[in-house]
Amino acid sequence: MPIDFTSIFYSTSPSKVADPEEGAELFAQQYSQSPSIDIITDFADFILESTVTRPGDLDPLIQAALLISRNVSLPTVYWTSDRPKNAFDEVFNVDFRDKIHSNLSISETSERTEFLRGSFIAGRARSLGLVTSPETVGAVGEGLKFADEVIYNSTGEIAEIRALGACLQLLGSAGKLIELFGERFSVVKVIKSLEEIRASAGDNRLVDVSPWIHATYFSLIQFCFAANDSSLAIDTTKGPFEWRDRTNYALSRLERTVDGQ
What we know:
This protein is mainly α and about 260 residues long. The chain has helices at about 5-10, 20-35, 35-55, 60-70, 90-105, 110-125, 135-145, 155-180, 185-200, 215-225, 240-260. It has two domains: about 1-105, no CATH class; about 150-260, no CATH class. It is elongated and about 55 Å long.
């Protein structure tokens, strides 16, 4: 029996954020009635799709997924003949992580939408403690063109798209990256890489990707790491809109600076 994820996890009021605990409880009730691996994989797809359909609701959705994954009372599901009984979190974590990795695998410019979606959600999933991996962390270093982390040696538009993806991950989880990998992602190292990328890109938009991600993010990240705005780079999860509000604030600061205000 399929589950209507939208009615469970999204608030009906545009001015109200969905309650992660309430969503997790409703999901557990419906899932327990007819547990299946299809529901788990569909749930992973639903979270990925929300990066486009409801990006403002991504945080409470990830928080709900984390609560669900920690619910040990959920029924097990059949996966394969070798693994006939599997806990929800075992299946979900593998499927969700694999789908993010798939989105972060880019070889053609036509795959940029999927890549940026994967980058966007990888950052928030890491920050909120749902999932992280060497592949998602490595994508940041590759996008920033760290000299000691050139994995794909991307050039042209692919390199530009990777750089934008790195910025999205930084916006979503800069604080967590500093906390977990302080030497690898030091403020000095990140800012130096961003300055080099911006210098090579000029003032024009790098890649026409979507309304919510463009070349000014390179400047935005530098604002987040600037000495006077150091708190902007730390993920505090004060509320589901906290990181988005922080981003909008930094972007408005950037625009006023560009306009000479």
